[in-house]
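Consider a concrete sample entry:
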Amino acid sequence: MKLKSVFISVLCVLTALTGCRQDGGGSKGRVAVVISTLNNPWFVVLGESAAQYARELGYEAVLFDSQNNPSKEAEHFDNILSSGYKAILFNPTDADGSTVNAKAAMAKGVPVFCMDREINEPGAAVTQILSDNYSGCIALGEYFVETVGREANYVEILGLVGDNNTWARSRGFHSVVDCFEGLHMLAQQNADFDQNKAMEVMETMMQANPDIQAVFCGNDAMAMGASQAILAAGKSGRIKVFGFDGSDDAVGAVRDGRLAATAMQFPKTMARTAAQFADRYLSGEHDLPRKIPVAVELVNPENVSHFGNFGRRD
């Protein structure tokens, strides 16, 4: 699938702090950018891009790191709602658990705009801007079959069990590969979208299943962790690794042959759209769509030269 997008280069001028980051001022008031975790380059780009786009629209922007912890996220919302913020650009930690935070903000007149991850109660946010994870993983599944073949043993490493993206990606992938009786899933285990956890999970899977031929990972951080484990086990080239996100590390790994493929979702597009919608809403335009899908593109050795910097080069 092809999506031609226009991207704006982002200059990251934020100083790193444990809980939040702040930079500059704006005449329109403050906007909070709450990100599930900054322990992943993809989410750093999402958060810092959202903050930068908000500043370009005239707001002061403050970036909060929830550290994939719903309790930490709740603390951030308490702080935000007592501090006079105008809007929240929100990347939730949990599809169900984060709903209460979004509803609390909306009840106090602070509009919420979800980016990348969704909450399960659509009315708890003004708009949710989400990658088309399911369709993206259909494309990955098709390329998986093309690359691995119709008869192979594989494993799957899932992300956070409370994140809808985890299951949308897995379902999209399985909607393709489950059609082939010769493709056998030997194991399926979650690693919380974390590179180190995925490396440990892959090590365990390889010990229990010495005949693994491929691994499908729910994000690029886990794919890179699985790749490290495969390298350490001396099985590079024997186990094909598939990721999802389009991080620079993964795109480079596809280029170098360490990953078979990934899928590019566009964090800067989602961040820009969230900031623009927040500005439109605060300017009085309240008739905005509840959900906006952002197309995902397959990245493989044939087209990898067209991708980089968390988007398309052309």
Summary: The mean pLDDT is 92. The CA atoms of residues 108 and 311 lie 36 Å apart. The first strand starts at residue 20 and ends at 23. The radius of gyration is 20 Å.
